[in-house]
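Researcher: Here's my situation. A collaborator sent me these components and asked whether they could plausibly form a single complex. I don't have experimental data yet, so a predicted model of the whole assembly would be a useful starting point for our discussion.
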Amino acid sequence: MSGGEILRLEGIDKRFPGVHALNQVDLDLVEGEIHMLLGENGAGKSTLLKILSGSILKDSGRILLRGRPVEITDAHHARTLGIGMVYQELSLVPGLTVAENIFLGRWPTRAGGLINWPEMVTQAEAVLGSLGVPVDPRVRVRNLSVAEQQLTEIARVLALDVQILLLDEPTSALSDRDRDRLFGFLRGLRGKGVSVLYTSHRLGEIREIGDRATVLRDGRKVGTVAVADAAEDTVVRMMVGRDIRERFPKTPVPIGAPVLTVRNLRASNLLRDISFTLHSGEILGVFGLRGAGRTTLARSLFGLARLESGEVLVNGGGIEVTSPEEAIRHGIGYTTEDRREGLVPMMGLPPNITLASLDGVTRAGIIDHREEQRIGARLVEDLRIQPPVLSRPVRLLSGGNQQKVVLAKWLASKSRVLIFDEPTRGIDVGAKTEVFQLMGRLCAQGVGLLMLSSEIPEVLAMADRILVMHRGRIAAEYARGEATQEDLLRSAVGLSGSGMEEA
Amino acid sequence: MTQHGYGSWVTRLLLKGGPIIALFLLAGYLSAVSPHFRTTSNFMNVLAQTSVTAILAVGQTLVIISGGIDLSVAAMMALAGSLSAVSLAYWGWSVWLGLPLGLAMGTLLGLLNGLVITKGRIPDFIATLGMMTTARGVSLLLTQGLPVPSHVTAIQLKAYLPPELIWLGSGAVLGVPVPAVVAVATALLGWTVLHYSRLGRSALAVGGNREAARVSGINVDRARIAVYAFSGFTAGIGGLVLTGRLNSANALMGEGMELQSIGAVVLGGTNLFGGEGTVVGTAVGALIMGVLGNGLNLLNVSAFWQRVVMGLVIIIVVIFDQWRRRRFGA
């Protein structure tokens, strides 16, 4: 299966203001291999892929394509060289159909330059069919699920007949079934001699799909290993540069008085009969499949979705929350599933961190910049946010560090109830562990944590109690250590058997 | 381990100082080719001419930072100035009532802009475009299309504008034109609001990422309404100064100034899509426009060509600004 070398990178270097994103990185890609690119957030993986796909330019270094030096100038140039990239952030046009998106910019035409619609739909069907994606090419992209959009995005790149396929965390939004389908397809491409460079945060995928793996850390290459010879621990150590003792560090914290009580909540035409109590120092896990109502629950409690009926009590007192402003005043904080919804991209770190607690840095209506810098500097150091450059706009930070800024915002706000929606989505092992440690510290300070997650292992490991949601209701409740992975899944799909009986 | 800034002052200047560099290059060139340009009297003249645009541009800066745009600043200015003038010249109001009336009118119009945009849920562009026409129409109705006071009324009714208002537009303090002093004071106010108040911070957050501002507990509607009200208020200040400078108010005064104010904001490095910008930059942007206009006059460039040059300069500077953002900010 492995042929000759198709791509070689020598001494690739890239600096952004304040960071050395890539420091003399070498890499070689062999024909017909799936090459994993691993590293923590901010290690330089995405930067490397963006240089190869032409969306940013390298500062120095050489790129050899089949032994010939090339200067990739832009995305179009990369494409003509046979390099295609699937971006982590979806780059589809929501208002256009699937077929139009797949052939964006190179629509099949008739004489006179008019678009040949039937031809485009037929070709799109062929591409989607070969990938096994059950999507109608005539549907508008905005009507697709996230997973379907991701698959469309991949189909779009594959329609280009690429020799080198770059994938930046393609599975972060996919269900297991779609992921298996994608992997099957990647293996098929490998059989045809296509080379794949693939970044992922999911360690399980390395062995499942990878042939070789290159690990980056802080912009430098740590090494390249053949996946068959490398133990998972070895790879993790290479990535973080230290042993991670526990992937799920759970601090035992005494559970205190109720901080949040919800009674018979009904909201958004989806949630029904939601009742639970969250205690001080407790992590209450909320598990459920997509569409089960986890995020709706969070948004209802935070004043972003309208309650139809039911009671919400904070510290024993009933509250009415109709806006995030009020929720925050009652001591509730919320980190959104998509961390970009929680950050102001061009602002530096301190203003982002104090955004939810401006009262705390305002004296007589005047913002105290020195106090704000002090709070920012303390949290940046405390959470090991990299790079620790306070004035740096957060949009230039890596995903994991952005997530830490969002968490820092709620640490600064001194909320008593925190709702974390997928707090480890799309961040790497090292950063995940830090987020979990932070959750432990918050609990030790008496905060009650509502942890919404679709990652079964982390819910099982971190939560003191677990609620499982199914179709807008709480389908089951488990104490810590009571449930297995299978129990959670059974409850989440609506099968009774263990836990509560479904009404 | 924390550090500030991006590094050397050279990089910082390149990153943030584009407008200042442009202003110095322009002034240097004009000093070299026109001896009259470097005279103090000419300099004061530039300041006086730039002031009204600069005053409007202060409010415009906050609006644009919050992700909006205010096309109605010049029209609000005309209505505020006309109302003040009518109250002073025809209704016999004292300056202590007549001048605040203009400021209140401007603020009220801005408030209406904000309410229509947020509660009526229509785009900023459309709402302020509507206000632009409506406010001009109301000004015409109020003044019956005549200057206030007009020649006739001044002679027959002895209706004059009070000396205080004339001083605001044409006086001088220690040789510095009063309009320039007012412009500096307005810019200081805008700077304080942007830098030190919750409103300024909210505007930056709302313009940078409205959703993030919302989930951080910022009342997005309130912030946007307040920013438009502030723009109306600075338009009111501009109306008083311009009326004083012209010795009378008229419904059509300052036409086209909304675009000049937007030009000054953009020349000053404020992101037209919101989220970042400075009042100091805007002041520099307004000066660039003023110096350029003055220089073109001194060089005897025809008024027709001046417009062409102004338009091109705005486009070229913004192209440079976008390039700089990409190059240094990726």
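Model: Some features of this prediction you could bring to your collaborator: Residues 1-7 of chain B have pLDDT under 50 and may be disordered. The radius of gyration of chain B is 20 Å.
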